[in-house]
Inverse folding.
C-alpha cells in the first residue's frame, strides 16, 4: 500500500482549491508558479478553466504524460488510491484523478493536504 505525506506545495502555504496546480507541481517537478502560469496560458487558448479536466489533460499530454483508463481488478472492482502501487513502478511519479480532486505521488507516497487513499481512482497519468 502506498504511503501518505501531508505537504502543501503552495508557496504561500494557503489551503485553497488549487489541487490541480499542486498535483502537477509535484508530478512535473516544476515550481508552483511555472505550473500555474502555464495552466493559465493554456486556459486562455482553450477556453477551459485552469483546473478543468480538459485543460489539465492537455497540459499533461504536452508534457509527455500518458492517460490510463480507470484500473479494474479481475473481479471488476475498482482500485483505491492506496492500491496504485500495484500497477506502477516503485517511486514512479503519478498523477491520480479522483472525484473532484487531483493528487500526485512522489517517492512512493501520495503528497497532498489530506489523505485521499481511501478514494476510488478514476484515471491516472504516467510520464512516457
Amino acid at each position: 500500500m502506498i504511503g501518505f505525506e501531508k505537504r502543501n506545495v503552495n508557496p504561500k502555504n494557503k489551503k485553497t482549491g488549487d489541487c490541480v496546480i499542486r498535483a502537477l507541481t509535484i508530478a512535473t517537478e516544476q515550481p508552483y508558479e511555472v505550473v500555474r502560469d502555464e495552466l493559465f496560458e493554456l486556459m486562455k487558448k482553450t477556453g477551459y478553466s485552469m483546473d478543468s479536466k480538459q485543460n489539465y489533460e492537455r497540459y499533461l499530454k504536452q508534457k509527455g504524460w500518458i492517460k490510463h483508463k480507470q484500473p479494474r481488478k479481475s473481479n471488476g472492482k475498482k482500485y483505491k488510491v492506496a492500491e496504485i502501487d500495484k500497477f506502477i513502478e516503485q517511486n514512479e511519479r503519478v498523477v491520480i484523478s479522483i472525484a473532484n480532486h487531483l493528487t500526485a505521488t512522489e517517492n512512493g507516497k501520495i503528497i497532498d493536504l489530506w489523505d485521499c487513499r481511501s478514494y476510488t481512482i478514476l484515471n491516472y497519468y504516467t510520464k512516457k
Q: What stands out?
A: The first helix runs from residue 19 to 28. DSSP finds three helices and six strands in the chain.
